[in-house]
Amino acid sequence: MRRVVVTGLGMVSPVGLTLEDSWQSALAGRSGIDLIKSFDASRLSVQIAAEVKGFDPSLYMEPKEAKKSTRFVQLAVAAAKEAISHAGLSLEGDTTSYGCSIGVGIGAIQNIDATAISCKEKGPKRVSPFFIPYVITNMAAGIVANTFKLKGPNLCTTTACTSGTHGIGEAWLHIKAGMADVMVCGGAEASLCELGVAGFQNMKALSKRNDNPSQASRPFDVGRDGFVMGEGAGVLILEDYEHAKARNATIFCEMTGYGMSGDAHHITAPAPEGEGAQRCLRAALKAAQATPEDVSYINAHGTSTYFNDIYESQAISRVFGDHAKKLAVSSTKGVTGHCLGAAGGIEAVFLAKSIHEQVAPPTANLQEVDPECPLDYVPGAARDIKINVGISNSFGFGGTNGSLVFAKI
């Protein structure tokens, strides 16, 4: 089977409009969470979010195309453009072996909401002919492919908060199987609107720290009270090793494994003791032909919710045994919030940076570790460590789980 390497990275996040700005914020533990400014949140009990600030889609797309695209698509194009440039990837000539796989969890819920109101109040003739192309989740992959003329496999994974991770995993499988030489892959999401926040707040899933937004997302902390919604996009260039070597590409790390599982337990709550997450991690290690002792860092799903943080910690403890106490485990959601379908893309980019630079970002806002979370969560500050093998976890509603394994090369 072919080897698959990471040759380019791109990101637009609540803590930066570029890869490097986002990465430096993650290393500093600098939060991007604040009071909501993109819409009137006064009727909501939760009035905080991790918004992408100062984003101008016309810097990445033709203004006419930007106007016909929704925000999650615009963010995906921006991150993809940076990743392609970062990879030094030429898109001239035959691109039939270059594909695109971008996961999106919800997509354009705000456009659906606004159009439904307009249709009801003004009639169906007022519904835009662009409405369907605006809102279907695969338009992130579709428009990225159109923009950069990627004529290979084109797909979208929509698996809740595991969407980005599955998008990357499926891209890896396509290259391993010889179905593509290069895949532009990751996750994108932009579902911040009154309807979206109301849905999560009424599930009691969100933090209500309106008076202290920057410290609201606090994974593994005993005082955590829910996650904070975010938005953004994280994109990687995965490439066949021989293809990358032939064009003398810079290789940041190798993707060696991918695991999936289903909890078959509950529509929103994870399985007790992270039973599904355990199987997912074991599958990823098996695919990577790695032992638990090979791993030194995990970028955790770490949502800052009660059950996720405990059950993910239990899953890691069960799978890694005595070695679990030697792992560095951090959640970058303390700075980015939970970017839903984009989370796996953003966190995979962070993992690639961690391995390339041999540093683990901290878990921001971790002041007092929950006694039921018994691992080393890198509190306080980033840590220089030797990372030969690292893992990124994502778990989503519907009991869908995904883990990626990256290795130093």
Structure description:
- The protein is 34% helix and 19% strand.
- The chain has helices at residues 19-28, 63-67, 71-87, 109-122, 131-135, 139-148, 163-176, 194-202, 241-246, 275-288, 306-320, 333-336, 343-357; strands at residues 4-12, 34-35, 48-49, 98-103, 154-155, 182-189, 232-240, 253-262, 295-299, 328-330, 359-360, 383-384, 389-396, 400-407.
- A hairpin with a 3-residue loop joins strand 13 and strand 14 (400-407).
- Helix 10 packs across helix 11 (306-320).
- The model has no long low-confidence stretch (mean pLDDT 97).
Kindly summarize this structure in a few lines:
The protein has 13 helices and 14 strands.
Descriptive key words:
globular; Peroxisomal Thiolase, Chain A, domain 1; two-stranded antiparallel ribbon; alpha/beta; 409 residues; 13 helices; 2 domains; single chain
